[in-house]
Amino acid sequence: MSSPRSSSVATAEPELAIVPRHVAVIMDGNGRWARARGKSVIAGHRAGAEAVRRCVKGAILSGVRYLTLYAFSSENWQRTAEEVADLTSLLRFYLRHKVAELHEQNVRLTFIGDLSRFDSGLRGEIERAGKLTAQNTRLTLVLALSYGARDDMLRAAQNIALAARDGEIDPTMMSEQDFGRYLQTSPFPDPDLIVRTSGERRLSNFLLWESAYAELSFLDVMWPDFDETHFAALMLIFPDVNVVLENA
Ligand code: IPE
Ligand code: IPE
Ligand code: MG
């Protein structure tokens, strides 16, 4: 199957390896991993946070340039108050204490999602992490927090309607590219590969617009068990017949 998209991949070493430029991951299975071990759900999320570090390492080793991780969906606010509190404090902890490690790895950390729903403490950590790592160039790590693709598209439509009302744009002349500029994902290329762990085979409101031509890969491994070897295996199955070299 060939893709109409071009420039969708970069080469880590021009003649040696072809890797997707942007990999996006739905990190699922923390709860089931914990239950299978008689542990609390938060223990599953904690173990999941360690898997994030291994995934980032895998992305760096593979030469992937953009890694988007679905960490908290708009729908996840409907989980119990206790689980939401546990998840947000885990996030706060990682942003406060572990971003230095990403910075050392030359990783730029950035965010998509409705961050206004988080408390000011967490928003402060998010801002600090973004500023600290803003100039890094090896990998752009996009954390999707309080993110929903429908929410992002709805906001885009609202902003387009407002701009049209104010005479700033002619909506009838708008292209797909123009529309994409109103999405929070606009600074990043579309994902070439979307991975979901835990055996579930759905997108759960993740990157619906951006995934139009993405390859999809569903792994049976629970997210806390994910490591660099899973990442490397994903690179091997990436169908090189479907790629166009950036410099071709
Ligand atoms: C994914 O793991 C992490 C988040 C959604 C925050 P889950 O918590 O959804 O784990 P399962 O699906 O219950 O196993
Ligand atoms: C998707 O997983 C969201 C994240 C991984 C953050 P969920 O476990 O929340 O999705 P559903 O509810 O099974 O579709
Ligand atoms: Mg789940």
User: Strand sequence of the main sheet, in spatial order?
Assistant: 5-6-4-3-7-8
Shape: globular
Helix-residue proportion:
25-40%
Which secondary-structure class do the elements indicate?
alpha/beta
The total count of strands amounts to 8
Kindly provide the radius of gyration, computed on alpha-carbon positions and rounded to a whole number of angstroms. Answer: 18 Å
What amount of the residues lies in strands?
15-25%
User: What's the CATH architecture name?
Assistant: 3-Layer(aba) Sandwich
Largest sheet: 6 strands, parallel
Low-pLDDT segments, ≥5 res: 1-8, 11-16, 241-248
Ligand catalogue: 3-methylbut-3-enyl trihydrogen diphosphate, magnesium ion
Oligomer: single chain
- The number of helical segments is 8
Order of helix and strand elements from N to C terminus? EEEHHEHHEHEHHEEH
> Tell me, what is the CATH class?
Alpha Beta
The CATH superfamily appears as: Decaprenyl diphosphate synthase-like
CATH topology: Undecaprenyl pyrophosphate synthetase
pLDDT averaged residue by residue: 91
Question: How many domains, in number, for the residues?
Answer: 1
Task: Give the N-terminus to C-terminus distance in angstroms.
Answer: 19 Å
